[in-house]
């Protein structure tokens, strides 16, 4: 009977891990689709960048910013995470744009406009992450950690010597 109960517990833990992995994988796919759509609209339609370059930037930006969202978003909050995603998007698009795009394109302007739209998209994406992906985590994990120092005096004056 005990081995049967242990087997049920192991199966539930295994299902929870699988479910958690699927939530993270789906969140990564959502981020990739969002970034690809934004970059295709801004870079592809307005600046004429080919789809291969947009996919390259989207893949790199999705992976790097997703790792940041998973580890930093719960700790620093939505506002700082959006600012960080804006800066990261600008730097990645600008850096890769200098090597991938044609020289006639104003890369800094294209990167700035793309980063603005990515920042707006990240506001909604972070809400999704908080409500869907991080929903099972402890409440304390989603808040900033406040630490206190405990101190006291000695109980008797003789102990201070």
Automatic annotation (TrEMBL):
Question: Would you say which domain of life the source belongs to?
Answer: Bacteria
Membrane-spanning residues: 24-48, 54-72, 79-97, 103-125
Query: Which species is the source of this protein?
Result: Oceanobacillus halophilus
Q: Does the keyword Methyltransferase apply?
A: no
Record's keyword annotation contains Transmembrane: yes
Q: What protein does this entry describe?
A: DUF2512 family protein
Ordered alphabetically, the record's keywords are:
Membrane, Transmembrane, Transmembrane helix
Q: What is the lineage of its organism?
A: Bacteria, Bacillati, Bacillota, Bacilli, Bacillales
Q: Matching InterPro entries, A to Z?
A: DUF2512 (IPR019649)
Which Pfam families does the entry link to?
DUF2512 (PF10710)
């Amino acid at each position: 009977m005990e081995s049967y109960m242990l087997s049920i517990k192991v199966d539930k833990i295994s299902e929870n891990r699988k479910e958690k992995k699927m939530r993270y994988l789906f969140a990564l796919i959502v981020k990739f689709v969002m970034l690809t759509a934004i970059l295709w609209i801004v870079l592809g339609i307005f600046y004429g960048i080919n789809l291969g370059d947009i996919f390259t930037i989207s893949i790199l930006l999705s992976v790097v910013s997703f790792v940041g969202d998973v580890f930093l978003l719960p700790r620093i909050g939505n506002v700082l995470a959006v600012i960080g995603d804006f800066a990261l998007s600008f730097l990645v698009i600008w850096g890769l744009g200098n090597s991938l795009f044609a020289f006639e394109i104003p890369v800094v302007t294209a990167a700035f406009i793309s980063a603005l739209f990515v920042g707006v998209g990240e506001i909604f994406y972070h809400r999704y992450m908080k409500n869907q992906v991080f929903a099972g985590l402890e409440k304390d994990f989603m808040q900033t950690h406040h630490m206190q120092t405990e101190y006291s005096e000695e109980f008797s004056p003789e102990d201070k010597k």
